[in-house]
Specification:
Strand order of the largest sheet: 1-7-8-9-3-4-5
Bound molecules: zinc ion
Largest sheet: 7 strands, mixed
Number of strands: 25
Radius of gyration: 36 Å
């Protein structure tokens, strides 16, 4: 025989029945036996006391679209066995004085929607041990959850427009922006409104249509921290409900046309994007140890002369006090490049960028890390 799966444990307990002394007798049947606090013999007490009640059917609900279950007024993902246990605990009525309650459940699937549950309930009431075995059918009915109802009704609250400033975003850049949505949503508390209504390429970028304004704002903040850039919010009134304006939020996120580590030209010198700041970028000079800030406005007027993704790490073949030889991987010819200002003579390799058709060695200290 299959064993009951114990879902609520009951500690063993030794009975402390009052032993009658001569005159005491059961007030119902007159037996001069062991009596309970209510002056009943054990059989009469058991006949008049019910440890637990469980209805013959227990109703559960599952959304046919997303397979979430409704439990204690909340929708969520559950294993079906765990869900049955939850339903039993919700539906089971237990005598208020019960101590050391134990619940064990055996389940047997009848069909996709119905499961026969044998529920063993044990416990002590007034130190008398009780045990019930209930048989109940857990019936799972379809009910479309609020999230799926809203999705089906084309409900949305906000649009996040992924755009760029300065140049068109590459396919790779769009993919990396979009990927952060999945990691972001996994990192926050779930909410039925946190869903994507629609998404796709549009002229000049990518649009994400979302169920919640809070989600749109949260993700945008995440993008700003990770990639820099600017965002602008626009609210539009789309109707009225219960005397209040119903608004939709549009956030236009502009990723700068730069990545950390990109080389730009400013006042005749070369600089690398070192870090993102709230109002722009921190840049560090390539030719000496120097850092300065650039606003988004400044950046928009700036051109990338060498993208970080095109920089190379090359092995040093020969070095002297001011220059090194390396093999150019494009044509396998040996070339010479001046050492960066922060070279300490110990490096076996160099980070180089092709700037205006010439290889330039980049300092080690100059950015390139994504920090969050
Ligand atoms: Zn009795
Ligand atoms: Zn659903």
């Amino acid at each position: 025989m299959q064993a009951f799966k114990r879902v609520v444990g009951g500690a063993k307990h030794t009975g402390g029945v009052i032993v009658s002394l001569g005159k005491a007798f059961c007030v119902v049947c007159g037996a001069e036996d062991e009596l309970t606090k209510e002056r009943l013999c054990v059989p009469c007490f058991k006949e008049r006391t019910k440890l637990s009640i469980l209805s013959e059917t227990i109703q559960g609900f599952r959304c046919p679209k997303c397979m979430m279950y409704l439990h204690s007024g909340r929708w969520g993902h559950h294993e079906s066995e765990e869900y049955h246990e939850g339903l039993v605990q919700e539906a089971l009525e237990v005598e208020g004085r019960t101590e050391a309650l134990g619940i064990g459940i055996m389940s047997e699937e009848i069909d996709e929607r119905n499961t026969r549950l044998s529920v063993q309930v044990t416990g002590y009431i007034d130190d008398i041990e009780f045990e019930d075995i209930h048989t109940s059918i857990a019936r799972i009915s379809n009910s479309v959850c609020p999230t799926c109802t809203r999705k089906a009704g084309n409900y949305f609250e906000a649009t996040v427009q992924l755009r760029s400033s300065g140049r068109k975003l590459t396919e790779d850049e769009l993919t990396s922006l979009r990927t952060t949505f999945d990691t972001y949503i996994e990192s926050i508390d779930p909410d039925p409104m946190f869903f994507i209504n629609n998404e796709g390429n549009v002229t000049g970028g990518y649009d994400m249509v979302l169920g919640s304004k809070a989600l749109a704002r949260g993700w945008t903040k995440h993008l700003l921290r990770r990639f820099g850039g600017t965002s602008k919010e626009t609210n539009s009134v789309v109707g009225r409900k219960d005397g209040e304006d119903v608004t939709r939020l549009t956030i236009s996120y502009r990723k700068p046309a730069f990545n950390l580590g990109d080389v730009i030209r400013k006042q005749g010198r070369y600089w690398q994007i070192h870090a993102w700041q709230k109002d722009g970028a921190l840049i560090s000079s390539i030719d000496r140890q120097e850092r300065t800030g650039l606003t988004w406005r400044d950046l928009e007027k700036t051109i990338v002369v060498s993208q970080a993704s095109e920089h190379l790490e090359v092995e040093i073949l020969k070095r002297d006090s001011s220059a090194v030889d390396f093999m150019d991987p494009n044509d396998w010819k040996v070339r010479t490049v001046s050492l960066p200002y922060d070279d300490d003579g110990s490096q076996g390799s160099l980070h180089i960028a092709l700037i205006a058709d010439e290889w330039v060695a980049l300092p080690r200290t100059a950015g390139g890390d994504v920090s969050e």
